[in-house]
Write a structure and sequence with these properties.
It is built from 17 helices and three strands. By secondary structure, the chain is an all-alpha fold. It has a three-stranded mixed β-sheet with strand order 1-2-3.
């Protein structure tokens, strides 16, 4: 039941931000705070589509698997660096400036890639767009969790993460539509107007935003915190201190890796890294893996072959939405450590079945079902819950840094995945790729179970 406060002076009812019921403004906060989740997966999906288009051009025919890995990893490396740096700065100086800066970076460098379609600019542009997305990863969960009623925090942060599925599906579907209507390989840079437009929209939506009320309260700015809470959620909303009545002092960055904080970093970071290998390592090169597995049976060549691969990728990516939907249904009823572990094990099983189907030449439907199990397990479990975990284990004064460090580990895993998969595929074939992915999913399950039980014990 919502906690209400009666004001005898003006006979109005007021609601505490921590206990109030959900209202329309909460969903506005959720939508605006989820944009980097969508843009991040749009960026990753876009790289997997742009790269084969570039390889059709004479200037890029000889692009090595190493350089393909560099292109695939540039944006993710930017995310890995942007997340902890912007997260830590926001803990000290406030969220709002960086909340607006991130979409500006995304827009500016997307436009620069469009205007200067050269390999060096693509690498720089992907990196800087990634910095903007990474900063958003650290801030999005902070704004959402700090403005939601306590009983809805974890669920709404999970909903924000699940919007990343929309990015994967939307970019594949939109690019398929654009390519099918005649976009030529040499026009590949035009596709970067997609993240550019999304970044511009995000910035416009954040212009009227205010500083995080809970951050202001933790810094002792009570009047400003109350004004911000009323702006976001309504004039009848009040905010009260949760733990501290004096200004909070964030933990020094290096101390985040010591003592009890180290266990938090391992639990929130290593499983996110394992999940990142699967989400991005497999996701970026999905069209290539589909063809290597023999699922894509088309005899088309050139742009026609790319269009067919993107179409099938859109279908497979739709399984991501199903996975997130399953996770959102069960996450409020199930211990998150168990949900993550089961998700990792399901993903490992999916990879193992793909390997079995490939080695034994099983019917096509076996591979399709294996992809379904892989995507549902991955997105219902670790892909969803790793984003929620930092908001559960860190206090407000360390939340930006903790979220940023966890996201950094996640994107370092993603960088490793997109960097090594082309080389593993080149040297060991698709069989070795599937073996490596299976082993990483099992490692994620093991780390989750060991450290999750210590850092996030099951509620009795």
């Amino acid at each position: 039941m919502a906690q209400t406060i009666n004001n005898s002076t003006n006979n109005t009812q007021q609601y505490n931000i921590a206990t109030m019921p959900l209202r329309r403004q909460h969903f506005s906060v959720l939508a605006i705070g989820s944009m980097e989740q969508i843009i991040g997966t749009v960026l990753s999906g876009l790289v997997g589509i742009v790269m084969p288009m570039m390889l059709l051009l004479p200037a890029y025919h000889s692009m090595s698997s190493f350089m393909q890995g560099v292109l695939g990893a540039a944006g993710l490396l930017g995310i890995a660096i942007g997340s902890p740096i912007i997260g830590s700065l926001s803990d000290r100086y406030g969220y709002l400036f960086y909340y607006r800066l991130c979409p500006i970076l995304i827009t500016v460098f997307s436009v620069l890639v469009y205007l200067f379609p050269y390999e060096w600019m693509l690498i720089l542009g992907l990196f800087m767009i990634g910095v903007g997305v990474g900063g958003g990863y650290a801030l999005d969960s902070d704004y959402i969790s700090e403005l939601m009623p306590d009983r809805w925090k974890e669920f709404m942060v999970g909903v924000a993460k699940s919007t990343s599925a929309l990015g994967f599906v939307a970019v594949a579907g939109l690019c398929w539509f654009i390519l099918a209507h005649g976009l030529k390989a040499e026009q590949w840079s035009s596709l970067f107007l997609i993240p550019g437009a999304l970044g511009a929209l995000t910035f416009v939506l954040r212009i009227p935003c205010r500083q995080s009320p809970r951050w202001l309260m933790e810094k002792g700015e009570t009047a400003k915190a109350e004004a911000a809470a009323k702006y976001f959620l309504g004039s009848d909303v009040v905010i009260t201190p949760e733990k501290k009545l004096v200004a909070a002092k964030p933990t020094p960055w290096l101390d985040m890796f010591k003592g009890a904080n180290l266990s938090k970093v391992i639990f929130s970071g290593i499983p996110w890294a394992c999940e990142g290998v699967a989400v991005y390592g497999v996701g970026v090169f999905l069209p290539i893996l589909v063809m290597a597995l023999g699922i894509e049976k088309s005899n088309a060549e050139g742009m026609a072959k790319i269009i067919n691969s993107v179409e099938l990728t859109t279908i497979i990516n739709s399984f991501i939405v199903i996975g997130f939907a399953v996770g959102l249904v069960v996450m409020r009823r199930m211990w998150h450590v168990s949900l993550m572990s089961i998700g990792f094990l399901m993903s490992a099983a999916g990879m193992a079945v793909l390997l079995w189907g490939y080695e034994c030449h099983l019917p096509l439907w076996v591979s399709v079902v294996a992809f379904l199990v892989f995507e549902i397990g991955l997105n219902a479990g670790p892909h969803l819950i790793t984003f929620v975990v930092p908001t559960q284990i860190y206090d407000v004064d360390d939340l930006g840094a903790g979220s940023g460090i966890a996201a950094m580990f996640g994107k370092l895993g993603a960088v490793a995945g997109v960097f090594i998969i082309p080389m593993v595929l080149h040297s060991g074939g698709v069989k070795m790729v599937l073996i490596v992915c299976t082993a990483i999913m099992l490692l994620g399950a093991l780390i989750t179970q060991i450290f999750g039980s210590k850092v996030l014990p099951k509620k009795k």
